[in-house]
Every structure is written in structure tokens, then in C-alpha cells.
């Protein structure tokens, strides 16, 4: 059984891509076979992982694969092998998908159909979501039925999390299924008053049901990204490896 995880928060710049790359790297480092799917039309993970050329390439790509259901494409045709894990890159054409999927048949089930057609058994699939609530994020939530939530340790996260939880609930009701919240990744935490207050709020609000991890603001995370790898494959040591390893261990237990 492949465990699939959507890394989602519709608020922009909270660390979805950083979390996706480093959780995928941590899982791979622990011996798991991992596929990272870049579902964000911005293609940040794709570019970060050194696949900028593919982002601009012609079909077949993830955008064309999601745009049709007449003939489910073989997702293996759009998988790129990297040293740490495999990647399904985003494509610039994906910017029109939100519009194209509106009113289309099974518009929220496209990614699930692609996953069903995967002919290789990964241990984990990790999906980087766009900073919006729309068809693409719905596709990720429905296809994965597991969500890992990155959020900044600042007041604006409260409303963002309420909105995300409402969306998760609406998919659960619409499709009569359960989506598991796997944990909250408080990201880019700096030790100041607001962050400390928010960490307390996260613990009070979620601590009984979910693990709350703390990823500090670290330039090593940016440098690894700029080198096309997770911190686990980056030459520089970082204290955040231990935190991402803990997240991976938890995912191995529950996802
Ligand atoms: N823990 C961290 N330490 C230092 N820099 C970080 C950290 N987390 C994220 N960043 C930086 O902050 C910026 C936003 O992070 P990231 O791209 O992961 O967020 P995102 O939620 O994926 O953004 P978007 O909503 O645009 O997809 C990036 O430049 C990233 O390198
Ligand atoms: Mg991103």
C-alpha cells in the first residue's frame, strides 16, 4: 500500500514546498521509495529540484494528464528519477487548469485516477499543493486522504487553518470519506514573542489530536533548495534534519 500525503495550506509562502521536499528527503533517507508530485502551477519544487526545463516542456506532462479523463495517461511517462526520490514535475500549462476543470466531469478526481494508474508501488507519494483552495488542492486532498499542514507561527495562521479545515470537511461530506490530518508543521519559527504565543496556541488547539513540529528559520534549508536537494542530501549539516526525520518517522507509523 502506498501512503499518500498532501502538503496543504492555501495561505502563500508558509513552507509547503520546503516541507514537501524535506519530508520526501527524510523519508527517502530512511529507506522509503518516494514520489514527489508538484501540483503547484508555480512549479517551485520543480525548479528547485533542477527540472526547470521540464516545467516549460511540451506534452505529456502533469497538466495534460490532469486535463483529460478520456484516456488516463500513464503517469510513469511523466516521472523523473532523481538521486533521492522520483518527481512528477509541474508544467507552466497548469495555470489554466483551475478554469479548465470548472464544470468538467470528475474534476476533483483527476489526480486519484492518475494514482490508480501508477504501475510502480512507491512507499510514499508526497504532493506539494498550490497556495489556493480550488480544484487542484481538492484533487490532492481527495487523492491522498491524508494531509500534512505547514503554517507560520503567526496570528494570520488561525484564520487560514479554519478555512482549510472547512474545506477538508466539505470534501469529506461531499465524497463520504475521511481525510486524516497527520500533523502541523510550524515553519520558519524564530524565537520571538509572537512565535512563542502561536506555538502555545498550536499546542492548545491541536496538541491533543495532532503532533505539532517546529521547523526553525534556517538558511541551510534555502541553500539545500538552491542546490536541488533536501537537507539530507545537502553537504551542510543542519539541526533541522532531526526534526524532519521525526516527521518522517511519524508518517511511517500513521500514514
Ligand atoms: N524554515 C525555513 N527557514 C528559512 N527559509 C524558509 C524556511 N521555510 C521556508 N523558507 C523560505 O520561505 C519561502 C517560502 O517557503 P515555501 O516556498 O516553502 O512556501 P510555500 O508555502 O510553498 O509557498 P507558496 O505558497 O508560494 O507555494 C521560500 O523562499 C523558502 O526558501
Ligand atoms: Mg510552494
Largest sheet: 8 strands, mixed
Low-confidence stretches: none
Give the distance, in angstroms, between the N- and C-terminal Cα atoms.
10 Å
What radius of gyration results from the CA coordinates? Answer: 17 Å
In one word, what is the shape?
globular
- Record the strand order, biggest sheet: 3-4-2-5-1-6-7-8
CATH topology (fold) name: Rossmann fold
**Oligomeric form of this entry?**
single chain
Instruction: Kindly name the structural category.
Output: alpha/beta
Put simply, the count of helices is: 11
Number of domains: 1
If you average the pLDDT, what whole number results? 95
Helicity, as a percent range: 40-55%
Small molecules bound? adenosine-5'-triphosphate, magnesium ion
Just give the CATH class. Alpha Beta
- CATH architectural group: 3-Layer(aba) Sandwich
In CATH, what is the homologous superfamily? P-loop containing nucleotide triphosphate hydrolases
Strand content: 15-25%
Strand runs, count: 8
